[in-house]
Inverse folding.
């Protein structure tokens, strides 16, 4: 019998494996546009936002560290794919804005990605795709609420401390 714990563990490993393969495939898809998957990911996040955001907010939305997104945004600015604008809410945290060249790069990458994604998901009906999205969204929301690994580690540490206290008595 297949347990829920085993299925979850298998799902997590599959997501890790898929992430690596998506990054590799993304690098191949957008290399012609002189992008990497990481650059494309950040450009996509900037283009999807209805308002300009500072790097910290982009990073939070993507589930990445501020430092890694800052490094990428700085490289994108050097390539004139994004520019920085003054932030009326924070003097030092500049807003990241897509340039026309950056918007063209995102559009070209998305146009290249669509047929590839359709081919990759051939044979999957909308119900299965929606179900997969619901599962991944649920897991993402759980982790983004700081109730994921951080809470588990805190509980593990509390458990270790409780055990030490019990042995000391």
């Amino acid at each position: 019998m297949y347990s829920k714990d085993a299925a979850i563990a298998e799902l997590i490993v599959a997501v890790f494996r898929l992430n690596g393969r998506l990054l590799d495939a993304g690098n191949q898809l957008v290399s012609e546009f002189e992008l990497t998957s990481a650059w494309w990911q950040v450009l996509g996040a900037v283009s999807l936002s209805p308002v300009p955001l500072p790097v910290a907010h982009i990073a939070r939305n993507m589930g990445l560290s501020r430092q890694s997104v800052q490094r990428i945004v700085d490289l994108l600015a050097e390539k004139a794919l994004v520019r920085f604008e003054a932030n009326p809410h924070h003097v030092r945290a500049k807003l990241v804005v897509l340039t026309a060249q950056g918007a063209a790069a995102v559009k070209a990458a998305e146009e290249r990605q669509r047929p590839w994604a359709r081919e990759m998901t051939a044979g999957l009906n909308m119900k299965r795709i929606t179900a997969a999205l619901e599962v991944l969204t649920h897991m993402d929301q759980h982790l983004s609420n700081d109730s994921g690994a951080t809470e588990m580690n805190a509980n593990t540490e509390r458990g270790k401390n409780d055990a030490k206290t019990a042995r000391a008595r």
Q: What stands out?
A: The longest helix spans residues 4-30. The mean pLDDT is 89. Strands lie at 53-54, 82-87, 90-98. Residues 123-169 form one domain.
